[in-house]
């Protein structure tokens, strides 16, 4: 019997990133093989090229908002779908090579989201010291270990992995910040509805009055709550925006499917980014009776009867 090859999971690397920690939450120890990627774009490209089966990437943070590389990477290029979301509480250390003191730090390197989430604390500990962006917190720790920079903001586990020591612990300005990561794959069979799911979309609206209201109405009239909506420039079309949004429910549910079909009629483009179990610890709002699958099915039978003359 030929063996099924192990699932290949790409993640924002190198070893020691929060993305790797999120991947460990999403898949069991020993399940599949893990492939660190140098950037979010590289992780998504590996999936698109068939070099990985899934990618674990950061999507948004409770303090800093969305991660543009992921938002844009999912809105453009061959379509990928979210199959799982993972929420991780992140804590940061300021780490350096052994023997370094705060006085000896001439620059701090990290992922832009980590620098943004620690900006006030860094300004207090290291007034006037410049910060520099890195592709990830672990890439920053590795660069410090290699002597390219003096200090990094990273996860405690990354400091340990690259032989650094903490100059300061818990340097987050807002302790308890949560980052949302997503596991994305090439389109295929969807995760089955669980009764507490989310659906993600990117819609491009026409440049006309009320276009966004038209989008929102399609959700509202079907009793569907949005959990996130934000605008992003389309980048290739000047002043044309897309809206990236998450709503409650699964595309297999009639209300969500009908809303998507309606958006397909009223928007310039609708990109379906998947339906997957909700993992933020919250429960979807109750579905109004008139938006339940049974109500849609009954209305469909009634309409069919009108058309055949049987009703
Ligand atoms: O760089 C990492 O470790 C990541 O996974 C991205 C990130 C950066 C800062 C906060 C949360 C996730």
TrEMBL record:
Its EC number is 4.2.1.51. Keywords: Amino-acid biosynthesis, Aromatic amino acid biosynthesis, Lyase, Phenylalanine biosynthesis. Pfam families: ACT, PDT. The record marks 179 as: Essential for prephenate dehydratase activity. One of its GO terms (cellular component) is cytoplasm. SUPFAM superfamilies: ACT-like, Periplasmic binding protein-like II. One of its GO terms (biological process) is L-phenylalanine biosynthetic process. Pathway: Amino-acid biosynthesis; L-phenylalanine biosynthesis; phenylpyruvate from prephenate: step 1/1. It catalyses: prephenate + H(+) = 3-phenylpyruvate + CO2 + H2O. Residues 8-186 form the Prephenate dehydratase domain. One of its GO terms (molecular function) is prephenate dehydratase activity. This is Prephenate dehydratase.
